[in-house]
Each structure stands twice: as structure tokens, then as C-alpha cells.
Amino acid sequence: MAAELVRGQNVPLSRVRLEIRISAGVPVLVGATLGDEQGTVHGRQWVIHPGAPAQPGVEAPRQAAAEHRLAVDLAALPAAVHRVGVFLALPTGTTGPLRFGAVPAPHTTVNGLDGTELACYTLTGLDAESAVIALELYRRQGAWKVRALGQGYADGLPALLADQGLRDADDLATAVHEAAAHSLTRATPAPPTGPAPGTASASTAQPPPGRGTPSTAQISQAAPGHPGSPVDYTHPRRTQGTPPPPPPSTPSAADGEPARPVAGDAVGWSMEERLYNQVWGMFEDLARTTAAYRSAVEYADSRLEKELDQALADPRARLGGAADAAREAAHTRRIQLAGQARAVLDRDLAQLTAEAEVVEPALPPAYARWDSPVWHAYRAPAEPPMALRLGELHLPESAPLSIPLLVRLPLERGLWIDSGPVAADDDHVPDAAELRHLAMEAAVALAARLLAVHPPAAFSVQVVDPAGAGARALLPLTEAGVLTAPPAAAAAGISQMLERLTRRVDLMQMAVRGGAAESLPADVDTAQQLLIVNDFPHGFDERLVTRLRYLADEGPAVGVHLLLVADREDAAAYGPLLDPLWRSLLRLTPLPDDHLADPWVGHAWTYEPSLAPVGGRVVQQVLAQVAKARTK
Fold first, then answer.
1. In 399, 405, 459, 467, which residue has its Cα 20 to 30 A from 490's Cα atom?
2. How many Å apart are CA 290 and CA 345, to the nearest integer?
3. pLDDT of residue 143
């Protein structure tokens, strides 16, 4: 069992190849310092950071993000290195928080490469600090240990580096922050003319050659405040330590015109990875240009208010012609500033729309809409994709432009499709029964996509439908014969299904920890499992609820995933007992709803599910191909 450390505590490390995970809730920079026996860092080459992300034995992320994974191979470290300090720092020059006291307590875990958690530490008690050494790996008498350090610095990264013995700490800290900011810069082409005075757009920044890898402008659920699906930009089949190839060159454009967009215009080892990074880069561009527009409008409004206050400050001049002229001039300036900001936004939206029109048709099935022609040529894949499309995201200012919501596979957390009331965009407000049916249709569309993008027999779907209310929505799955077993309805059937999945989780955990995955019993299905639960908590007693919570918490790490279709109000009788369950799931909705919050720029994104065209049979045709591939 993993050791949960408190500040100052240390434990021995049983592995030399480690993965250190950091979850901060907001984007942070992560790096490492290499020290000798006294902890002294001998020069810049002993600091791993976004500008120099790899040294022998340590590889750090290249950008700010809310979730990080840092790779450490203790056996590959130089002999002179006896200490490795893992540090976190809040980025400078952004609209993000300036101190750790204003953000959730960062959480760190030290894992083996097989996923075994060796130690964890939550950095509590931080306040004015903007940089902190979270963990220290140190060598003592030939053996390595990890210590929960939690040493914060109110003066930021320069103070942290200076405390490590670096003489040019200020210059190095500046370089670290600049490198992180540079990695966020993307290649949405700059227009021929600059932005209007008083306005700004992040997407007009001059990019480095090629497309940059996007950062995680991480989305999270506004309701429970839990981070959204973490975006890990490490390709599952990438050779660590080797930089990815550059993106393909973008066709040149005529003088005075933006370069033509190209599908796959991002870094990556394959077209799949390039498209994935490009989509997330488009998301980030849209977030930034919208943030710049909103900021410019807020400035125009505040300036109007200030100028009106000045015009009315003298009571003797309030009724004269000069006051009327001043008020009219103030309103004119406000209209001019807002118009300039809107022109910049419209220009950026036009560029992103042109890019989306090129990228969307090039997306593979895992990333594509259900109305994409790629499904007409569908064949069962030989290996799973690196990500999956859950729906689309858009902002009020960006309509009709939307960005695909892609999450990494395998899923790191369960999904919850909320069948409760939502705000409708039109006059038609669906009743409760219709909402439940729509939510189940969204669940079936997701299940069909997961089945389609995995190799035959590598992914299984099971269903719990206590009242049989989802039978109509489940028809595509049941008619194709792709369910592992008929939907469980009676209490005994539900209990057996949950017991079988719980046993699988327990056995897989023991096999992984013991390094004996090949010793699993023959009746254990090693395929990835998706459990769809409709109308939760109907048909569940406290014992079954406990098992479901266990599957939600422990299942994703060993390939058991939960897809809950439920109205939270139906479970109100359980009180706070189910709060951890709701927080552990990513909330989705069957209708467009602006519940996904972006803490990096403060937007509330509108989520729209990815559904098959009304009246079409693309899902049924794809599932028929899935069933045919399984029989082969």
C-alpha cells in the first residue's frame, strides 16, 4: 500500500524507474534540480525545466499544465547526483493565480512504471508562495528514498533556484518562464496588420517554426469543482527522450494573406498525434482570443464609466452643452474600442474556422463526428487510439465554430451523463422521460464509439438497466449483439454483474502489483470493460452502491470504466454519501449546456454531445462491422 507522506517524512523507494504525477488544479510549471551530496546545484545544466526538459535520468514536461507526469530513472543519473528536487512554480505574465494559497493544494504521487503507487504527498499549508519544492529524491548509503519537502518560496522561482546554490538564479528563472510561455505559443498565422490599439489577441503572437504542442487549458466541472479529464501529451507508444518530428511545412500564402491551414500542422510522431495536438491547440487559441476580446470590452466599459464620472463630477456643468458633448464622446470611444476588439476576434475566428474546415474531415474515427465520411469506410482497427471524442465545445462569441472535446485513452475517470433538468436553447423544454431517453442515447453513442475504435474483443460493454427504461435507446447495441451479456435488471443480476467486475478489479490489481499478469485465472476477461448504469440509484441498495463506488474509484487503473446515466436529485436520499462518486466522474449532458469551466482563462464552455444524425443508421452499420470483426 502506498505511503501517504506528511511534510518531512521519508520512505525508501523500491523502484529505480519512476513516474511522478502532479495534480495542481491550475496550470503550473514543473521541473527538477539535480544536487550533490550537500544539495548544491552546479550550474544551469543541473536544472531540468521547460526550456531544457531532458537530462540523463530525468525528463520534465515542456509546458504549464494542471496535470503533469515527470519521468525519473535513478539508475541513469550521473554518479555525482545524490539529490533530485521536484519543484512547482506558478507561471508569470498570465491571468492565473499568483500564489499557491489561492489554488487547491497540489497533490503528488510517486509511481512505478507499472502504475504501482509508492508514495503520495499533498502540499497543504501554502499561502503566499509562488514556487515550492514538493519532493526530494535522495541517495543515502547506496539506497534511494523520497522525502515530502513542501519548501515554499514567496519570492518565486528565483528564490528557489538561489537557495539551491545557483548564482544566476534570476536569469535562469526568467528563462524558465519564457520557455514555458514560448511552448504555449502556437502557429495560428499572424494577420498582415497588427491588432487595433488597446486590444490584444493571443493568437496573433508570432509562433516558432512549426506548430507548438498545446498546453492544458484544463476544463473542469463547475458544479463540483473537480478537474476535468487530464490531458497527458505523452504518446503511449513514444520512445522517451527522443523529440518528435516537426510538423509538415505549411503551404506558403500570397503576400498580405494568412497562410492556408493544413490538417496535422502540429508536432507529433504520427498523423493521429499531430491531429490530436492540433485540435487542442485550436481549443487554446479560441480560449485566448475570446479572453482577449472580453478583457478589451471590460476595459472599454470601465473607461466609459470613468469618463462619465469625470464629466458629471462638477454639478455646475452637468446640464450644459459641454457635459452632453463629453458624454457623447465617451460613448463614441467605448463603441470604437469595443468595435476594434470585435474586429480582432472576428479575424481570429475566421482563421480558426478555416482551420476547422480542413481539420474536421481529416480526423480519424476516434476523433470524428458521426456524420463524417470516415465512418462509411470503417474497418476494425488493429490497435486502440490515443484519444476519444466526447463531444464539442464552443463559446457564445464563437458560434457556429466548435472544437472537438478529446480525452486521452484509456479513460482515467468515469463519465456521468446527467439526465436531470438542463436549460434548453429553444422553446421546447423536454420532460423528464424525454431527458432520460436522450441521456441514454448519448451513452449508447459513446459506447458504440468506444467499441468501434478498439480492436475486436479488446473492449466490452455491460449494461445495468433496473427498470428497463433504456431498452429503446439500447437497441443499436442489443440488435448488433455486441453486449457481453443481456442488460441486468433484477437485483440478483445487478449483484452478479457488479460482483464479477469487482473480482476482476481485485485480481488485476494483485496481478499488476505482483508482476504476474500472465497468471490471471482463465475466466477473467482482460479486455477493457465499460459498465453503463441507467437510472441510478434505482434498483441499488447500500451494498450495491458501495460496490459501484469501489468500481468508480479503483476500476479505471485496471481497465474497468463507469458510465453513469442519472439525475443527481434522484439520489438525494443518500445525502453526502455519494458526493465522492459524483466528484470522481466527468459530468456530461444530453443537451448543450455551459457547465464546463476553464480555470485558466475563466470561460464557461458549452458542451454538446456527439450524436448520430437523426434518422441515420451510421451507428448501426458501424456496430454491425464490430460484431462481424469479433466473429472472425
1. 459
2. 7
3. 87
**Distance (Å, rounded) from C-alpha 285 to C-alpha 187?**
9
Mean pLDDT, rounded, of the chain: 83
Would you state the pLDDT for residue 252? 47
For residues 426-430, average pLDDT: 70
**Looking at per-residue confidence, does 10 or 110 come out higher?**
110
Which residue pairs, CB below 8 angstroms and at least 24 apart, start in 102-106? 103/24, 103/25, 103/26, 104/24, 104/25, 104/26, 106/22, 106/23, 106/24, 106/25, 106/28, 106/132, 106/134
What pLDDT, in 10s, does the model give residues 157-173?
999 999 888 888 999 99
pLDDT of residue 222: 38
Q: For the chain, what percent of residues have pLDDT higher than 90?
A: 48
Under 8 Å between Cβ of 212 and 187: yes
Say whether the peptide bond before residue 537 is cis (omega within 30 degrees of 0): yes
| Amino acid present at 369 | R
Q: Per residue in 449-472, pLDDT tens?
A: 999 999 998 999 999 999 999 999
Report the distance separating Cα 411 and Cα 394, nearest Å: 23
For 317, phi then psi, to 5°, come to: -105, 5
Cβ-contact 629, 380 below 8 angstroms? yes
**Backbone torsions φ then ψ of 139, nearest 5 degrees:** -100, 125
The per-residue DSSP string of 387-413 comes to: EEEEEEEE-GGGTT--EEEEEESS-SS
What cell does 348 get? 481570429
What is the rounded average pLDDT of the residues 68-83? Answer: 91
Query: 8 is written with which cell numbers?
Result: 518531512
Query: Rounded distance, CA 440 to CA 436, Å?
Result: 6
Q: DSSP alpha helices (H): ranges in 96-154?
A: none
Q: How far is CA 294 from the centre of its chain?
A: 23
Global pTM value: 0.63
CA distance 580 to 226: 10
Q: DSSP readout, 601-625?
A: TTEEEEEEE--PPTT--HHHHHHHH
Spatial distance between the Cα atoms of 91 and 31, rounded to a whole number of angstroms: 12
List the beta bridge partners of residue 121: 5, 108
**pLDDT tens-digit series, residues 337-351:** 999 989 999 999 999
Give the residue from 486, 477, 450, 473 showing the smallest Cα distance to 590.
473
Nearest CA among 585, 517, 579, 575 for reference residue 555 = 585
C-alpha cell at 569: 436529485
